[in-house]
From TrEMBL:
UniProt-recorded name of the protein: SRPBCC family protein
Organism: Tenacibaculum singaporense
Stored InterPro entries: Polyketide_cyclase/dehydratase, START-like_dom_sf
A Pfam match: Polyketide_cyc2
C-alpha cells in the first residue's frame, strides 16, 4: 500500500509540474541562422519563390492567396502541408516586409500560433538569414507542451534553413 501511495504521489507531482509549465512559460522563442553564398537580393527573391519553396519545404502541398496587399504587409495565404500523412491547413499572414532586409510571417495552424521573423543581412557576396521564432497557443494544453518540444522545433527550423541554402545556391 505504501508503494502505491508513493507512485500516486510521484504521478501527481509530475502532472502538476506539467500543468504549471503552461502558467510559467507563455511562449517559446528560439533563433536559427544560415549563411548563403549569394547576394542578398537574390536570396530574398529565392525565399519568396513558391516553386523553390516546394524543394526546401517538401511538406507544402499548396499555397492559395486569400488576400494580397500592394506592400505585402497584411497579405494572407492558405497553406496546406502534409504532416505525418495528414493534410493540415494553416493561414499565413505577412506582418512585416522590407525588401532585401526583413520578412515576418505569422502562421495559425489550429492550436499552434507561430511567428517567424527573418532578417536578411548582406555580408559581401553572401547573405546571412537570422530567424527568430515565437510559438504560442490558444490551447492551454498545447502551451504546456511547447517548452518540452522547443529543441525539436528549433532543429526542424534549422533543417528548413539548411534545405533553403542548398536549394537557393543551386538555383540560378
Amino acid at each position: 500500500m505504501k508503494k502505491i501511495k508513493i507512485i500516486l504521489g510521484v504521478i501527481t507531482v509530475l502532472i502538476l509540474a506539467f500543468f504549471l509549465t503552461g502558467l510559467v512559460v507563455q511562449e517559446v522563442v528560439y533563433t536559427n541562422e544560415v549563411i548563403i553564398n549569394k547576394p542578398v537580393n537574390e536570396v530574398f527573391s529565392d525565399f519568396q519563390d513558391e516553386e523553390l519553396m516546394k524543394e526546401w519545404m517538401p511538406e507544402v502541398k499548396s499555397i492559395e492567396t486569400l488576400e494580397e496587399q500592394p506592400n505585402k504587409i497584411g497579405s494572407k495565404y492558405k497553406i496546406v502541408v502534409e504532416n505525418q500523412g495528414k493534410l493540415v491547413t494553416m493561414t499565413e499572414e505577412v506582418l512585416a516586409y522590407k525588401e532585401n532586409e526583413k520578412l515576418t510571417l505569422h502562421f495559425d495552424a489550429e492550436n499552434m500560433l507561430k511567428t517567424d521573423d527573418y532578417a536578411f543581412i548582406s555580408e559581401g557576396n553572401s547573405t546571412k538569414i537570422l530567424q527568430t521564432t515565437t510559438c504560442t497557443s490558444e490551447s492551454y494544453i498545447m502551451s504546456c507542451l511547447f517548452p518540452y518540444f522547443k529543441g525539436a522545433l528549433k532543429k526542424m527550423s534549422q533543417q528548413y534553413l539548411e534545405n533553403f541554402k542548398k536549394a537557393s545556391e543551386a538555383h540560378n
